[in-house]
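Exercise (ungraded).
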Amino acid sequence: MADYETLILDIEDGLAIIRLNRPERLNALSNALKAELLQAIRQIAKPDSGVRALLITGEGRAFCSGADLAEGGMSTDRDMGANLIATYHPILLELAALDMPVISAVNGVAAGAGMSIAISADIVLAARSAYFLQAFVNIGLVPDAGSTFILPRLVGTARARAMMMLGERLPAEKALEWGLVYDVVDDDKLAGTAKALAQKLAKGPTVALSSIRKLMVASHDNSYSEQLTMEAMEQRKTGRTSDCVEGVMAFIQKREANFTGR
Ligand code: LHQ
């Protein structure tokens, strides 16, 4: 298994846990962390990795404070668009393409691109003391790393625009009220709750879970009839899995299903 310096990757019983690990910088996305995050996602994505769910969280008091602002200076001739395309987009696109559910456990602040990563997960759990911050405008930038795509779809355009333009903290409880997160739990319960949820998903019918991911993304842009067709196509696939046979058998035999991910 690869050695990482800026994150911790644990793989156990089909569950991969990535802990962003630059706590002294609130897990800011340095070039090294971005490179390792991509490497970890690629390791997890390998068909022989055995991974069936991914949980992402942060070490220390933050989830992730976004781009590392201390690295490489901030001169005006820097092409931040090129930086996004070269280093952020592969992470976001390969994360989105994973054939497994992704959960984020937001243990503290999720700011800038860190918020983008947090809310790109299928299920977002937040600690009660955590908060979300569209920090970009505070440093004269536009939201990036997918924030302008994901945020309005989760909370609606009125709230998304205000968050993006005001650059104010959104506390976890309010994020829950707005539909940005699935649930908020006490700080000392976050790690355990998120792991239990992720373990449940890692033992789930992986093909169906992966199809749910694809269907949910596609529903943003598809027409109703296109979406119905896509549901039928994905159902053709899931209907042929052994997990579907097992699920139905388990129901009939009144026992727990033992899904294998195939
Ligand atoms: C940090 C950071 C950080 C470095 C805290 N970098 N050190 C992509 C591509 C290309 C270009 C640009 O944009 C992007 C996407 C983006 O993500 S842009 C948005 C970048 N992020 C931000 O603007 C957030 C900056 N951070 C903050 O506003 C605050 O630190 C927050 C609100 C996150 C937390 O505040 P506090 O709890 O008061 O902590 P702090 O500010 O004291 O931070 C603790 C330390 O971490 C501190 O270092 P120090 O040596 O003083 O202890 C900070 O300098 C460092 N740190 N965020 N992003």
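Further reading is listed at the end of the chapter. For now, observe: The radius of gyration is 19 Å. The first helix runs from residue 31 to 45.
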